[in-house]
Amino acid sequence: MIDCLIIGAGPGGMTAGIYAKRANLKTVMLEKGAPGGKMTTTFEVDNWPGSGRISGPDLSMEMFTHTQNTGVEYQYGDVANITVEDGFKRVHLNDGSHVDAKTIIIASGMDSRRLNATHEEKYLVRGISFCAVCDGAFYKGQHVVVLGGGNSAMEEANYLTTLDIDVTIVHRREGFRADQHAIDIAKANPRISWKLGYVLTEYMGDNFVESIKIKNVETGEEEILETAAVFMFIGHLPNTQFVKDLNITNDWGFIDANAKMETSVPGIFAIGDVIDKELRQIVTASSDGAIAAQNAVKYLESQKHLT
Fold this sequence. Notes:
With 307 residues, this protein is of the alpha/beta class. The chain has helices spanning 11-22, 56-70, 132-135, 151-161, 180-187, 282-303; strands at residues 2-7, 27-31, 73-76, 79-85, 88-93, 98-106, 110-112, 128-129, 143-147, 166-171, 192-196, 198-204, 211-216, 222-226, 230-232, 236-238, 268-270.
């Protein structure tokens, strides 16, 4: 039986794997995609301590190589659901197989909602971003577009202006989902302009985004808006479908975890973007992973008298 099974091989999952293996646990990472998670679709990372500016795929490979040199076992696996009975944990995979583990660390991350506009896939790491904190500094002195009408769109638009960036908020409705306070702050910001009642229909440019086509939802009139980047804040989809029967998620589908990364199910931990938290960054996911692994060790030690 596996001592520590990690679902997901993003920065949090890989850090958890390193710490768990260094604690002499039999450790396995399950991943249904490439190691690195969202880092693999990040063009450049400029805030990972010690690396300076590095591409997301390169940082992913550096972390993955570290896990392999440490002895963490890596397996492909697409999780269907998890069952727990008398503390016994079984992870059921979509291929019909299963994996048994004494502890589980869920590091399955989240997917940002997309528009599926024309040429969107082409520019995903070439001018389309889902994180102002991650990528905003690359666009100092330029103009960018923020998509969305919620708190994230308002707050991230304001943040971008602090980096010497002019912002146009494009939103399909005249009204907003954001709190009035967030809206008032954004509307008072002289560096933010507005295109309300418009939808983005096409990305354009050579190798990177240079402009977008937007359409008025009432008149159908189209226009071209020049921009160095598009920051998309139209919601997130946490990858938590496989834990729905464990009752560990909140109303938005994110997992509730405490400061020790513990869920309400003993021996199951959750880390990174998949948990309900304020800041989602590579460094915070890695921090979560280290904390979860250490507490998985403590949990196993507490269970020794029962075996």
